[in-house]
Specification:
The complex is a heterodimer of chains A (122) and B (107).
Chain A (H helix, E strand, L loop, with lengths): L2 E5 L2 E3 L5 E8 L7 E7 L5 E7 L6 E3 L7 E6 L4 E6 L8 E10 L5 E6 L3 E5 L2
Parallel strand pairs in A: 2-11
Antiparallel strand pairs in A: 1-3, 3-8, 4-5, 4-9, 5-6, 7-8, 9-10, 9-11
Chain B lengths: L3 E4 L2 E4 L5 E7 L7 E6 L6 E5 L3 E2 L7 E6 L2 E6 L9 E6 L11 E5 L1
Parallel strand pairs in B: 2-10
Antiparallel strand pairs in B: 1-3, 3-8, 4-5, 4-9, 5-6, 7-8, 9-10
Classes of the chains: A mainly beta (122), B mainly beta (107).
Chain lengths: 122, 107
C-alpha cells in the first residue's frame, strides 16, 4: 500500500524553527517528485513547496521563500521541510503529497499523508 | 499566479440529487485541472485528474469536464459519503494553485 506519514509538527514560538518529516512506503520513493501543501485551520489548501526526484530542483510559494527549505533522503525514503523564521500565519496542517506526471505533462498529487499540525504562537 | 475560483462556495443538496460544482481559471490552463475531495479531519483525496480522468477506485458517479478556463465536477446521484469539501487545482503553471473550496452539505 502506498503510504505517506508526516511527523514533526508541534507548538513553536514566532521566529522559531521546526523540521517536518514525511516517511514514504509502498512505492519507489526515489522515482517520484514530492510536494508540501498546507491548510490553515478551517481554510483552504495552499501549495508550499516542490522537490524533484534527485533533489536538485526545488520551488517555493512566495509566502515561504527564504524561510523554508525542502529536501529529501532517497536512501531513507524520506521527505523533509525545514521551517525557519516561523510566523503566526504559518499555523496550519502540513501535508506531504506525491507528485504524479503523465506523458503530456499534466500533474496531480496522490496520495497525501494524514498531515501534521504546526502551531506558531507565543 | 493563476487564480482558481470555485462556485458555489457552499451547496446544500439531498441524497440522490445531481450536483455540479464549477471552477474557473484566471488564464487558459488547457485540461491541467484536478479535483480533490476532503472530509473533516482527513487529508484530501484525488478524484479527477487531467480534467476528466477518473482516479482508480473513485465511484463512476463522479465525473469531470471542461477545458481552457472553465471546468465542472458533477456527482450524478449524491450518496451520504459524498458530503465533503471539494477543491479544484490547476497544474499548468507553478504554483499549482487551488480553488477556495466548495462545501457540500446535507439539505
Amino acid at each position: 500500500e502506498v503510504q505517506l506519514v508526516e511527523s514533526g509538527g508541534g507548538l513553536v514560538q514566532p521566529g522559531g524553527s521546526l523540521r517536518l518529516s514525511c516517511a514514504a512506503s509502498g512505492f519507489t520513493f526515489s522515482s517520484y517528485e514530492m510536494n508540501w501543501v498546507r491548510q490553515a485551520p478551517g481554510k483552504g489548501l495552499q501549495w508550499v513547496s516542490y522537490i524533484s526526484t534527485s533533489g536538485t530542483s526545488t520551488y517555493y510559494a512566495d509566502s515561504v521563500k527564504g524561510r523554508f527549505t525542502i529536501s529529501r533522503d532517497n536512501a531513507k525514503n524520506s521527505l523533509f521541510l525545514q521551517m525557519d523564521g516561523l510566523r503566526a500565519e504559518d499555523t496550519a496542517f502540513y501535508y506531504c503529497a506525491r507528485h504524479l506526471v503523465d506523458r503530456k505533462g499534466r500533474r496531480w498529487f496522490d496520495p497525501w499523508g494524514q498531515g501534521t499540525l504546526v502551531t506558531v504562537s507565543s | 499566479d493563476t487564480l482558481m475560483t470555485q462556485s458555489p462556495s457552499s451547496l446544500s443538496a439531498s441524497v440522490g440529487d445531481r450536483v455540479t460544482i464549477s471552477c474557473r481559471a484566471s488564464q487558459i490552463i488547457s485540461n491541467y485541472l484536478n479535483w480533490y475531495q476532503q472530509k473533516p479531519g482527513k487529508a484530501p483525496k484525488l478524484l479527477i485528474y487531467a480534467a476528466s480522468s477518473l482516479q482508480s477506485g473513485v465511484p463512476s458517479r463522479f465525473s469531470g469536464s471542461g477545458s481552457g478556463t472553465g471546468f465542472t465536477l458533477t456527482i450524478s446521484s449524491l450518496q451520504p459519503e459524498d458530503f465533503a469539501t471539494y477543491y479544484c487545482q490547476q497544474s499548468y503553471s507553478t504554483p499549482h494553485t487551488f480553488g477556495q473550496g466548495t462545501k457540500l452539505e446535507i439539505k
